[in-house]
Write a structure and sequence with these properties.
Length: about 250
């Protein structure tokens, strides 16, 4: 009888650390499937209340710094703060302070989700945006305000009105596409790209279909974060099936 063999584990060349709200169920399911070979994923969680409000988000960020510090002990090459909403509500100055605090706490390069989105918008030469999200109108308005204040006029927007953090992952692909198209229709042809916010939304399921239908770039918080991480690592790996941002890549500075 042959002796069973144990597969030799592959040691990743790079490791990416992601800090997510404790209710997030999307990142750990999707990212390992699409990260290029040689790039490993490590995830830490920060406690968040069940209802997404500005007050709850600010409290979560306190846990987030400690979660990032803990995550840094496995020596990732970069750490991503995987929550869009807290920076949307806090604004860009808050976002920059958060990145600085994360850098100081970990001694590692740290990126917020909103930083990743702004880099991706700039990379694609986007001028105006239609914005969609699963958020409440209050947090959705913060998404719009954040984009506008950072030089990206929002010409149309729509939101699903979900209040529970865990429930942000519940919309089907059809639901996500519907709210995205509502934002696009609200823009009335005056947007050069479509953005779908939230790191706990399965927005990747509709990127390719929406790009084919609308013939404009479609960016999501989850997809833009993968792109920014690859840029940070100096990788020019292309990932198919999730929009031109990941499919038409060049090396850093290219």
């Amino acid at each position: 009888m042959p002796t069973p063999t144990t597969p030799t584990p592959t040691t990743p060349t790079h490791r990416v650390g992601v800090v997510v709200p404790s209710v997030n169920t999307v990142i750990e399911a999707w990212y390992p499937k699409i990260l290029p070979p040689g790039i490993g994923l490590n995830v830490a969680r920060m406690l968040i209340g069940q209802t997404v409000t500005p007050e709850v988000l600010r409290e979560m960020d306190g846990y987030g710094i400690e979660a990032a510090r803990t995550l840094s002990t496995c020596r990732p090459d970069v750490i991503v703060y995987g929550c869009t909403a807290s920076s949307l509500v806090g604004g860009r100055d808050y976002d920059l302070r958060l990145m600085q605090e994360l850098n100081e706490a970990t001694g590692l390069p740290c990126l917020t989700t909103t930083e990743n989105v702004l880099r991706a918008l700039r990379h694609l030469g986007v001028h105006t945006v239609a914005a969609a999200s699963p958020y409440t109108e209050q947090v959705g308005a913060a998404e719009v305000g954040f984009l506008v204040s950072n030089g990206y006029p929002v010409t149309g927007h729509a939101h699903l009105g979900i209040t529970g953090g865990f429930d942000l992952a519940s919309p089907s692909a059809a639901d996500i596409k519907k709210v995205a198209l509502s934002a696009w229709e609200d823009a009335d042809g005056e947007a050069s790209a479509l953005f779908i916010g939230c790191m706990n939304l399965n927005s990747h399921l509709v990127i390719a279909e929406l790009e084919a239908e609308l013939e404009v770039p479609v960016l999501t918080a989850t997809q833009a974060t993968i792109w920014a991480v690859l840029e940070e690592l100096g990788s020019n790996a292309e990932i198919s099936g999730y929009g031109r941002l990941l499919e038409q890549r060049t090396s850093v500075g290219g």
